[in-house]
Each structure stands twice: as C-alpha cells, then as structure tokens.
Write a structure and sequence with these properties.
single chain, 393 residues, mainly beta, 10-stranded mixed sheet, 6-stranded antiparallel sheet
Length: 393
C-alpha cells in the first residue's frame, strides 16, 4: 500500500516527455485529493487490525505518512453483531471470535464528519496449505519458495488466494570470545557468557501475493512461486524458517490487488489511472468522496511453517579475512589501553613470554563484531526453533 500514498502525482509526469516547452500543471480536483486509504481484513478467530491513512500530494515524498486519528471503527454483522475497534494514530484493532458463515459482515468507519462502509459479505473459508516446496534449479540460482494449497473446496469454479509471509533466521557473530581483560587485576579472565553465541532476526514480507487457479488442472493451484532468497543472503547461512499465511479471497479482492500492484509498478506512467480508479468495496455514505482499499472477509487464515538448512543448498557464503586487530608484541599496559581507550574486547591471548624471545600475542575486536544484538538480532530463542519438521496450522 505504501506507494499508493504518492499516487496522486501519477499524471504529473507527463511534463517530462521530450518536446515539452511549457510547464505542465496537473488539474486534479479536490474530489481526488486527501482520499481515505483503508487496509485490513475481517477475519475469524484473531485480532483484526485496520489501518487508516490519507493520500498525499506530489510534494509529499519526504513527509511522514498521513495517518487518520480519532476515527470510530467497527465491524458489523447482518445478525446485529458488532465489534468495536480501539486504537490511535491510524491503527485500530478488535478481536473477533468466530464469524458465522451465514452472516454478512462489513467494516464501518466514521471520521472527519463522514461515514464509510464496506460491502457486506459472507466469510470465505480457506483451505489448508498442503505443502511448501523449496527449490534451487542450479548451484548459482536463488532459492525459490513454492506453495501448494489443499484441494479446493469447489473444483468447479475459479479459486483466488492471497498470501503473506514472515521470515526468521539464525545469525552468528563475526567472532566469539570466551575471555575478557580485567583492568583491575590486569589479567585475562574466562567468561563464556559475556556475548551471546547466536541470535535471530525476523521480518514480515513487504507485499501481499495473490494467485488464481484459472490455469491449473481441477482449479487446484500447485507449486506457485511466492518469493525467493538470494543464495548469498545471510538468511541462508545457518538455519531459516518461513511462515506462510494463506487466505481465500473473492474475485473482486483479487482484481483489486492486481490493479493496485499495476498502479504501483507503473506509477508515473502516462496512462496510469488515478487512485480513485482502483476497484474498491468501500463507499462513503455521506458524500461522493472516493476511497482506496478493499476489505475482505475470511472465516480463517491457514498457516504453514517450514525450515531450511544451508547444507541442502548451494550457498554463496563470502570469505572474510580475519578482521580482528592482532598485536604480536603486547603487554598488560597495552591491553589496558585497548580496553579503556579503544573500547575493544580481548579475543585471543597467546602468551609465549616464558620462552626465550617469547612474546605475548593478542587479538581484539569491537562489540559489533561480537554481539549480534548490535546487528539487529534478538537473543530469545523462538519457541518453534527446536521443531524438526514442517507444520501446517
């Protein structure tokens, strides 16, 4: 959704065409400016989050996203049920237990004197994920992640899905040390716990991926590529886990996602539509204002967690020469200065001074080379990290 906030400038790029003499000024009426942007899905058995913001004009590339505060946001059912969302600064959340498959649900928003509602719709059930395949076609290829849903509930019609994913991978420090130089006693001290030996990083995929079963036999999607991982990325150096989230969606939501993606990729093109031309199922009941977004309704979200080990793939792990600082003729006074003045940490202590012509050799590293937390990692092991097999939820 991020690129949509800049979409009002799409047609302005016409002035960059070769041969333009006079400055071009886009004639965009107020009707198409400051549009409400709605993100979120009504889903059963989970915390539902809805994000409200406004489109920004051509001069707003470096301006923070304009979030909508103070709105009243709620989910309603045709049976009279109501779930009131709480939140601030554009983020509104409510917990929904179990959606009734025979009830139609819609999102209601009240903000800035206007009322918006999404089209009522029955929750769509989603099949489980049958399997996730990971392939590397050649030793130089990236690692591709492919998804196969279970056989569709209805094989006589087209089926549409959206997928999101989360990634977690293990990271290790550049160097490890089990000692430190104690500046009080002027000696090395054994301490294996001063720095964590490993950590983890986690991110959410940056986009929503969609697919349709139209070109698959029996309307059953098989081995659809979701994303890939560069074989030289640190994500593949140790252990990796991905969590795929699958949701069955309507044809209308599928078409909205395709149109949104096209508008994002072609932003600035001469024939790119204004954001108001994107399909939507959200309408303003109190005026003719346009809205950007699509609120789907799902009875469940299927998940599949899988694990990868680098030993099963051709990984391009670059060679790094020893970047520690080695002092080949050292003494305790030098060690003291390395700790106090250079803020470095002792990694190696090779004392040969008891031999004729023997010397003290030491190696030193900075904290960011030893502590994965300074590289954005956390050290609390995820509760699923010890699993040895993939899991479908």
């Amino acid at each position: 959704m991020k690129s949509l906030y800049f979409a009002l400038c799409l047609m302005v790029s016409v002035c960059t065409l070769s041969g333009c003499i006079d400055e071009y000024e886009a004639d965009i009426s107020e009707e198409y400016s400051d549009l409400l942007v709605v993100e979120g899905t009504i889903c059963s058995g989970k915390l539902n989050q809805f994000i409200l913001s406004r489109t920004q004009d051509i001069n707003s590339f470096n301006i923070p996203r304009q979030m909508v505060s103070g709105a009243k946001v709620s989910v309603h059912g045709s049976d009279g049920s109501e779930y009131i969302a709480q939140g601030s600064y554009g983020y509104y959340s409510c917990w929904i237990d179990v959606l009734n498959p025979d009830v139609k649900y819609y999102l209601r928003i009240e903000t800035d004197g206007d009322v918006y509602e999404s089209d009522p719709q029955k929750p769509i059930p989603s099949e489980k994920i049958a399997e996730v395949n990971v392939v590397q076609h050649t030793p130089e290829s990236n690692i591709e992640v492919l998804v196969t849903p279970d056989a569709p509930f209805d094989a006589d019609k087209a089926n549409y899905y959206s997928w999101t994913y989360e990634e977690t991978w293990e990271v290790h420090p550049d160097y490890t040390t089990y000692i430190y130089f104690d500046t009080k006693i002027m000696e090395p001290v054994y301490d294996p716990n001063q720095f964590p030996l490993r950590g983890w990083k986690s991110i959410k995929g940056s986009s929503i991926l969609v697919g349709a079963s139209l070109n698959y036999e029996g309307q059953h999607i098989r081995k659809l590529k979701l994303y890939d991982i560069d074989r030289g990325d640190e994500r593949m150096f140790y252990k990796y886990s991905g969590l795929i989230q699958q949701r069955a969606i309507s044809k209308a939501e599928y078409e909205y996602e395709l149109a949104r993606r096209q508008a994002s990729s072609e932003m600035g093109g001469l024939f790119t539509p204004l954001p108001s031309a994107l399909p939507t199922n959200i309408h303003c009941l109190t005026s003719h204002k346009h809205v950007i977004g699509f609120v789907g309704c799902s009875s469940n979200t299927s998940e599949y967690r899988f694990f990868l080990s680098p030993v099963n793939y051709s990984i391009d792990r670059p060679y790094h020469k020893d970047a520690r600082l080695w002092l080949n003729d050292c003494n305790e006074g030098t060690c003291y200065r390395m700790v106090v003045e250079e803020h470095m940490f002792l990694c190696e202590w090779k004392d040969e001074r008891y031999r004729p012509d023997g010397k003290l050799q030491t190696a030193w590293a900075y904290d960011y080379q030893l502590d994965v937390r300074l590289r954005g990692a956390y050290i609390e092991e995820p509760d699923y990290w010890s699993l040895e097999e993939n899991v479908s939820y």
